[in-house]
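Dissemination and training. As part of the outreach component of the grant, students in the summer workshop were shown how a complex can be specified as a set of sequence lines and then modelled as a single object. The example used during the hands-on session is reproduced here so that future cohorts can follow it. Participants entered these lines:
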Amino acid sequence: AQSVTQPDIHITVSEGASLELRCNYSYGATPYLFWYVQSPGQGLQLLLKYFSGDTLVQGIKGFEAEFKRSQSSFNLRKPSVHWSDAAEYFCAVGRGYQKVTFGTGTKLQVIP
Amino acid sequence: DVKVTQSSRYLVKRTGEKVFLECVQDMDHENMFWYRQDPGLGLRLIYFSYDVKMKEKGDIPEGYSVSREKKERFSLILESASTNQTSMYLCASRSGTGGVETQYFGPGTRLLVL
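and obtained this result:
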């Protein structure tokens, strides 16, 4: 069965610092991988996705993620965090018209 | 602009009541989903539908049913609400069957069952 692990429940970074959110997945074939962001009181918005090709994926709001098959990872990165990036981030895996499985989320706090 | 709307942002119901949560999308998407979101558990899929009148169980369908009579509308029904169904409910829609397409989410309905 497919699964996603986000080992960090909560992360705090200073504004302007770099960010890396971890995501590990379990999937029987080449997965489709997603990162979503949820601002307080809102639904989820897609940041980026990987389904084939270049393993470094660029997304919106200056985020990027790298697919590493050997490590079963799809970590999200941003070189310089802004206060508006404070939110909850979800990694997800799925393929075809089958369901998408979400991780438990990582809450990002940004301090001045 | 893409839009998924949910009928209520906040809802308070009593144990045993029948509860309807409505979701409407304006993108002509084939696929629609209902999730519940709980702290520490992430999003869990309750039901999804890949066509009108079609439905598939997700991971936690017990205590829920769904209805999709029109392409744009997907309803989640709690036949007899219980306190353990207090949660945030998120609806999403997605085009196609390839799986790579983006899921678009509504703002969520926060349900409190007393």
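The two ends of chain A are 41 Å apart (CA to CA). Students were then asked to discuss how this feature might be tested experimentally.
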